[in-house]
User: Fold these one by one.
Assistant:
Number 1:
Amino acid sequence: MAETKPRIRLDKKEVRKGQIVDVKTLVSHVMETGLRKDAAGKVVPRMIINTFNCEFNGQFVFGCDLESAVSANPYFEFKFKPMESGTLKFTWIDDEGVRIEAAETITVV
Amino acid sequence: MVRRLNRREALAAGAGAFAAGLGSATGPARALNDYAEQIAKFTGGRTPVEGRVKLELPELAENGNTVPLSVAVDAPSGEGAHVQEILVVAPANPNARVIRFRFSPLSVPEASTRIRLAATQDVIAVAKLSDGTFFSASRQIKVTIGGCGG
């Protein structure tokens, strides 16, 4: 898989306790459905990111299980409420078990 | 040698294609897969109550390859029952399941992504709350060009 850095955008990195942070993530991936045929008529095997997880200080925040109906270069937007300062860790896992990881820090003032 | 279309033929072909597009866009939503079983599996056989889930999709998608989808559930986060999961299914896609969002007490029960839709259909979202109740919403979307790679 082409190693490109996932793009992550937080609407704010400094928040008051319990304030909602909006998180947008975008990662490059073909998300091959397994339904498409190549020029020779052979089915192109499925190759998708099947799991996305986001943890904050080791605690699960948000995740999803993807199917082939998720568009190429999966985009997610979600919101969460940090109660303390810490690190958001993002993990994407594809059908071959390749993990793509990223992290962002948030400060609660 | 490929014969080039003259202008009149090209216009006629274009009009035909346009009519065909309209036909498929206004046709009934077809169920080609096991979406009902997928929902039953998700709810453990319980029938979700319609409401509380807000499912947002464009009314018309010209390209089924990237259709923006947003779901939100009207449920208090923090105290009381919180939203654990939301399953999205597409009855007219080759595979019913589209995505399953997983939430926690830290997250707000709202999420957006981009999905592929094969044809015009009623997309369904089912939310599972921590007290074992299920809520659902469905929304029709017209798809001009399917996006599941034929």
Number 2:
Amino acid sequence: MNRLSSYKHTPARQMVSGLIKNSKNVLGPIVRLFLFTLVSSLAIVANSSAAEGKQVTLTGEMIDTWCYVSQIMGSSDVVVGTSHHVCAVWCAAGGIPVGLLDKETNKVYMILTFEGDDTSAANDKLLYLQSHELTVKGTAFELDGLSYLNIDEVVSDQGIVNLTHEKFGIVPGEARP
Amino acid sequence: MKRKYSVKLSGLAAVTSLVVLAAGCATAPGDIQKWSVTNAEARALTGTVVDVQCELSGNCPDACGAGKRQLAIKTEDQGVVLAAKNLNFYSGAADELSPFCGQVVEVNGLFTENRGIRFFQVQNVRTPGGQWQKGTRYLQAWSERSGKSPSVASKWYNNDDRVKDVLEKDGRLGLGQAADDEYFN
């Protein structure tokens, strides 16, 4: 989230506008400019402690982010879907970030909260949703190059639709029975 | 053809696991292991251990969630770097870093940036100038949380009741037991 753009809608911004408006008749332009700069700077600093999110509706697969990014067990096409389901459950149970791979943009969102539960490492509920394709509503955040997602609501659960085992088998091999 | 490719991939995964295991046995405290991670770069970071959710929303539980939150290293030059992995198999870094919540630490390990995502694998952690602690605390934490013997912790993923429940319910393919029976038998 661009902090400057989010600042446009904050109470601080409204306060700045109000001050400028009320000062028109009593202060000169230079003083008004100084006041605007000062209060705007303070408002930006105040807003920098917490990012503002963006409401989103996304559809995508719940994935094991470590194997997807590291490719330690094969290409990113292999470590999704049925071929990697067991490993995805292991990694979610072990506290590796679970991600939502957005179908439209291929962007990965790290899931931080799920329907009000703010356990983001080894959340039991997410174990049962690994590899599923979900449509969710929530709040997305950007922080230092990563995208994060608070899922407010699962709109629909399509189950597991990415049948990668048909092409790639089971990865890793120790996930076989 | 499909079976041949599958066997080849399984073999590759097994070899990878062996290489990682072998590397894990041969390192001194503070050394960085080489894992076959795409775009991996051995790196050390100094910064404050932070809870990502706390950084984003101001929702900040004690001890950074005590293992239940995704944690990161907040550095001066690289911002908030998510610590996604530790040195054990299939486990994250929350248990490695939560004892250091809010403290400045030195960590080393593998940094990778791929598909627009940047991750850090915490291999060792210490307070500045202190003794290195290997990023394997997860096994002890799992044993304490699950009530299971430390002797089965190295393969915690095969002994975890939560995992067993999911796999019994949904099968190894996630498509139900009937699909598993047809595929694996």
